[in-house]
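Service request form, structural biology core

Requester: graduate student, group of Dr. S.
Request type: structure prediction, single chain
Budget code: on file
Notes: please return the result as structure tokens.

Sequence provided:
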Amino acid sequence: MAEVFKNLINGEWVKSKSGKTFENRNPADTSDLVGTFQLSTVDDVDAAVTAAKEAYPAWRDTPAPERAEIMYRVANIMRARKDEIAQLMTREMGKVLAETRGDMQEGIDTADFAAGEGRRMHGQTVPSELRNKTAYVIHRPMGVWGLITPWNFPMAIPTWKTFPAITTGNTIVIKPATDTPACTARLMEILDEAGVPKGVINYVTGSGRVVGEHLINHPDVKGISFTGSSDVGKRIAEATGKTLKRCSLELGGKNGQIVMDDANLEIALEGALWGAFGTTGQRCTATSRIIVQEGVHDEFVAELVKRAKALKVGNGLNEDVQVGPLVSEAQRQTVASYVKIGQEQDKAELVCGGHALIAGDLIKGWFFEPTIFDKVTPDMRIAQEEIFGPVLSILTIKNLDEAIEVLNGTIYGLSSSIYTQDVNNTMRAIERIEAGITYVNGPTIGAECHMPFGGVKETGNGHREGGWTAYEIFTEMKTVYIDYSGKLQRAQIDNK
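Core staff response, request fulfilled:
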């Protein structure tokens, strides 16, 4: 019998007050029931926020190095459970075991980083303009944070948000995506085992329309961290803007990989395959556009199509599978609709794939062929809109200036890549590409947890997850002046 998962509220695993549940099934084999989860109500959210609010003062006053010790224990428990949870993640989300192990490792690395940050928590000390006076800046926690996470990285992204939030002294209520709530439940178990006090972490499952909306608008929630689509992010920004609530948004992407004539084509091909079809294209950093210089276009595309057709699609629990299913039937329908748009509206040339895979064992899941369109122009919808699936567009350019213009020509600006052996082209690209991340001779995917992560334009609202910048998201700066002169001193007054 499948496991029944409960909400975690104030240190207790409890059922929703609604008495209702929803199912989570393996997208590679829908006969495999991963578990049932609580279909929560606003009352459940209220209880979770109340618990977090009550736990906040004691957690805020816990020394940061003591909070860091918990993060060390979290990392070690995650190491011990890495393979077990990777198996669960593949069943829950669909991506292959090599990737779910990587997802777990990213969470482990994030815990290690958090443990280190708990003993740093750097502020800044600067000289005062007056004698016998000290000036410095410290970072203080804010209170209760609402964390809303997506389905494509069921462990990594919840850790990106949870660990900085609680290490800096905040308390949280986390709502995972309804497609992948099981891994977040396991994360809560690990945090609980590691010694996080009751009420500091709270986990509530259910719909975005009910749980997410109430969390966003709750007056006792001081900040919202959301990863998802740009359209939803805009609505969250509008809602939180009404009360000037802190809001961190990591949103969509339409990432481009430039391939210049002088590129090492072997590594450019490997990067394109991994960037486009890793996680079945279901990454905000996925390579969805190849911008290739005309001199190597024919050779590059021919070999890319050959290798894409050779990729093995199937259940990610099989070690030899390279591409898993899409996360849901709805996502497969979305991908199929964009393939139709590419053929009928955009009139691009379909050179690889383009069909749902419904034969043999694949009929049990939401599989789709790795798909490539050639002769794509920048104005086409498949070159502009985020598809979030294994669909790659090839655009041909004459020179670097045109390549950068094409790459920048979308509403998004998350990740980017250029393959070239010319250092001058490399530096010009780094300076002129409008993106939060630029890789040189590497694919658009592969962010490291100790570096800032995020984008420009409609990819986000300026915050950066990952690295030291995540700790700035979850804190307020306080400027401190200490005057030990024994008299009134007036700064910003001409005392000379």
